[in-house]
């Protein structure tokens, strides 16, 4: 059994692992990334019949305040930003289409709220932007609104926004402090939603470029099966082929996988409590079409059924063959619905109905469909009884954690980037 020694060993080559490794290698650290499968984790791009399908939601929220922008500047990443056009976003209420209140213009155009309710809603948004309202960690957003006697129409608007940004059919369960932290960023940004040209693969390629340019090592098909510990330190990770030693270790694999790695260590029980958490699961139904179906919107949110369709190819022309179109539909699931075959079939039918309604003729243009009935868009679901994993635990002083199940800012990929950045800073501060 051979031994290789590194300054930092990163376990997991998803967005958190790759961004951690890229940042630390750029600061002079000798870094190795170990990934059991393919790079990207859940954020991968799959090419089928000339179409680039992204697994997982690949929008970046509040991009001008995103940690990915920090990585972009400090690592000189080449990112082809494609900004969402809020004027092409519509809510489908069942009997009409109306503007999404994603910005001030959309708020005053939307028919979801009456004039007086718009003023009340705007007031709530203003308080959020100015951080006059921060919520309470022990109150759900529903309980908080009831306690504050928020108007029913305004309540519904706030929960509708939460549904579409937290990928949930149960927005009322979101902790109010998480809700307000998220929206204070979103409402103060100039770029609320952005896509990456080339999809996740373009970003993965950029991180790998930086790692390798700084003499880092990227090992795929390398499964970490356990760790070797001495006193209050991790000293090595074990793979089937070799033992890899390091000074610092960053674990960027989900807690369910992490439990196996830390069996028979002091951390096994501590990690196990985070492994019991429920992920945010959705049904994703993408369709690649041979010819574009032109409609006056690039985003439709079916308010009644909690389903949205995004015309990915409107923003990223590289994801389709010439003249083609790629549409992505996402249907939210309640936790009780996950794995229920009847419900899943019903959700797929609802998606197809929405395609029929807004993209007529799509069936005739269909080249390739891609359906995922259990797509995990975030490892942790934000509810009152679930808290994120800390980025470090006191048992082992040279062990850190990053990923979208960890403490950090934002939602979805932003949690991966922010936890990765915070971990990197902690390691660099040790020098």
Automatic annotation (TrEMBL):
InterPro entries: Amino_oxidase, FAD/NAD-bd_sf, Zeta_carotene_desat/Oxidored. GO terms for molecular function: oxidoreductase activity. It comes from the Bacteria. Residues 15-427 form the Amine oxidase domain. Pfam families: Amino_oxidase. PANTHER family: PROTOPORPHYRINOGEN OXIDASE. This is Phytoene dehydrogenase. It comes from Brevibacillus panacihumi W25.
């Amino acid at each position: 059994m051979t031994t290789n020694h590194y300054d930092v060993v990163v376990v997991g080559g998803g967005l958190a692992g790759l961004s951690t490794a890229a940042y630390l290698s750029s600061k002079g650290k000798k870094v190795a990334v170990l990934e059991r499968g393919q790079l990207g984790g859940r954020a991968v791009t799959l090419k089928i019949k000339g179409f680039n399908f992204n697994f997982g939601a690949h929008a970046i929220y509040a991009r001008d305040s995103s940690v990915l922008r920090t990585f972009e500047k400090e690592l000189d990443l080449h990112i082809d930003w494609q900004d969402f056009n809020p004027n092409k976003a519509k809510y489908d209420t069942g009997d009409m289409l109306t503007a999404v209140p994603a910005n001030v213009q959309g708020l005053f155009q939307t028919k979801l709220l009456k004039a007086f309710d718009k003023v009340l809603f705007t007031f709530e948004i203003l308080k959020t932007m100015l951080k006059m309202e921060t919520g309470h960690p022990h109150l759900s957003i529903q309980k908080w609104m009831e306690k504050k006697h928020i108007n029913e129409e305004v309540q519904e608007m706030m929960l509708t926004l939460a549904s579409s940004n937290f990928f949930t059919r149960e927005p009322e369960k979101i902790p109010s402090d998480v809700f307000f932290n998220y929206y204070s960023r979103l409402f103060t940004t100039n770029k609320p939603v952005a896509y990456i040209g080339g999809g996740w693969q373009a970003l993965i390629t950029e991180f790998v470029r930086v790692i390798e340019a700084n003499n880092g090592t990227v090992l795929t098909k390398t499964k970490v099966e356990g760790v070797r510990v001495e006193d209050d330190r991790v000293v090595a990770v074990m793979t089937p082929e070799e033992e890899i030693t390091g000074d610092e270790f960053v674990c960027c694999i989900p807690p369910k996988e992490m439990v196996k790695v830390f069996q028979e260590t002091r951390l096994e029980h501590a990690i196990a409590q985070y492994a019991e958490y429920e992920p945010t699961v959705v049904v994703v139904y993408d369709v690649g079409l041979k010819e574009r179906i032109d409609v006056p919107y690039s985003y439709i949110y079916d308010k009644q059924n909690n389903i949205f369709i995004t015309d990915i190819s409107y923003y990223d022309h590289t994801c389709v063959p010439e003249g083609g179109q790629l549409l992505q539909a996402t249907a939210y699931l309640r936790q009780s619905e996950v794995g229920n075959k009847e419900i899943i079939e019903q959700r797929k039918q609802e998606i197809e109905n929405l395609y029929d309604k807004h993209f007529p003729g799509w069936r005739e243009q269909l080249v390739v469909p891609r359906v995922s009935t259990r797509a995990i868009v975030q490892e942790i679901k934000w509810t009152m009884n679930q808290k994120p994993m800390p980025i470090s635990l006191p048992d082992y002083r040279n062990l850190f954690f990053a990923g979208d199940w960890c403490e950090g800012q934002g939602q979805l990929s932003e949690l991966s980037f922010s936890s990765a950045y915070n971990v990197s800073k902690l390691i660099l501060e040790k020098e």
